[in-house]
Amino acid sequence: MSRHEATWSHDEFRGQAREAVSQFSRRPVDPAIWDSFARGLFHSSGQFEKPEGYKRLADLLTEVDRERCTGGNRVFYLAVQPSAYSEIVERLGKCSVVNGRQPENGWARVIVEKPFGHDLESARALNAQVATVFREDQVYRIDHYLGKETVRNILVFRFANGIFEPVWNRRYIDHVQISAAESIGVGNRAGYYEEAGALRDMVQNHMLQLLALVAMEPPIAFSADAVHNEKVKVLQAIRPVSGEEVPGSTIRGQYGPGWVDGREVLGYRQEEGVDPNSSTETYVALKLLIDNWRWADVPFYLRTGKRLPKRSTEIAIYFKRAPLLLFSGMDASLEPNVLTIRIQPNEGISLKFHAKEPGMTVRIRSVNMDFLYGASFAVQPPSAYETLLLDCLEGDSTLFARRDEVESAWAFITAILEGWLDLPKPAFPNYEAGTWGPDEAKLVLERDSRSWRRP
Ligand code: BG6
To answer: d(Cα 454, Cα 351) in Å, to the nearest integer?
Structure first.
């Protein structure tokens, strides 16, 4: 379905698909495998708002069921502009592809791309509307971060090892930093990004999901509901940042012109499709607290931005310092132990600790114990979308966001958005492309006598 109809024959569509796969696949495509796969590709086009397209789709699916014994099973993937979600879901509900379906006639699932709403109210409305057509167990709200190998490994790291759980709490952890830095700019997505901004685009979904995985309690089982239950509890325990606290706990930024990777780049306001007076943020830093027994008083600092010096997404767990400084020369300036989970690039985990430098005197230096995915497992991991699509086909929604998870995340984000509306317009641009964001972002940590980790 699209706004405009593109009518291809099945063969033309297969040709288009072949080209796209060759372009994006990280491995050469085996022609024999492709041919057998392509025989299962069909095309039917229609416009979002016109019922005929849905009718054609329903007829085609019935035919495919008959020819290929697909058992009436369907996944509808809403990879379209968010404003069209409601209409498509409603129309799917009205046509025979979803409605009146008995389980013995196969299953129907819907994947909804982000952004799922643009604030709490719209997310609730969309959830309510989707629920009129699909049961919650049929809805797969996608967040591609959850399909990344390194993100999936967070739960394995925490709960398949016995040594971390005892120290994973306020007694031993001083604070946590979650950073998602990007060197790219807004690219050709200005239309979407102008409406979204970094808080909605990255924090509401990807970063709060990372936070939930790091901070959740052990689930009672590795099943979708058990994992979602624990993630929701964390999201609901985040202390709201609203009203007067907003300026102190959140910093916004927007990049101006500068240099990235030795290349001169435009400022955000000069990018194609961006309002020259835009006050959309391309950078956010914020501090939050989680009000539960595990995390009371442990700050979580989050930051994300575009046109930063390099691409780096990581979670750094800062441990409390040793209680007694026995060694002369081991002064307070020595960094504490830090466990860093590198989501991308250089995927891996490292633990920073102190060691004695070889020699007659006791001199102490920080060293790293490092695990690198590339070196330990000499295999190329599947892409996040490969993992998530397969999970959806298999009916496993563990790595998707449940209704209450999305709404809890939006509740926290919407309070900040409302706080920003009450503030004077920010003086943008306030950081040069190729730098680590606005200077004020440092203050969020400096006020707590801490500093951002340099990725
Ligand atoms: C998307 C955002 O969800 O995630 C983009 O809309 C962002 O703005 C992207 O660039 C980052 O994803 P990744 O996988 O490159 O970290």
So the answer is: 15
DSSP-derived pairing of the beta strands 139-141 and 300-305: unpaired
| Cα 198 to ligand 1 centroid, rounded to whole Å | 10
The tens digit of pLDDT for each residue in 68-87 reads: 988 889 999 998 888 899 99
Q: Any residues with CB less than 8 A from the CB of 231 and at least 6 apart, and which?
A: 209, 212, 213, 216, 405
Nearest in space to 392 (alpha carbons), one of 42, 78, 15: 78
Given a contact cutoff of 8 angstroms between Cβ atoms, the answer to whether 160 and 119 are in contact is no
**Among 10, 144, 175, 206, which one carries the catalytic annotation?**
206
**Which residue is listed with tokens 């979308």?**
385
- Which string of DSSP letters, residue by residue, matches 382-438? PPHHHHHHHHHHTT--TTSB-HHHHHHHHHHHHHHHHHHHTSPPP-S--EETTSSS-
Residue type at position 255: Y
Give the range among 92-101, 218-227, 374-383 with minimum mean pLDDT. 92-101
- 424 cis-preceded (ω within 30 degrees of 0): no
Ligand 1 centroid to 358 CA: how many Å?
44
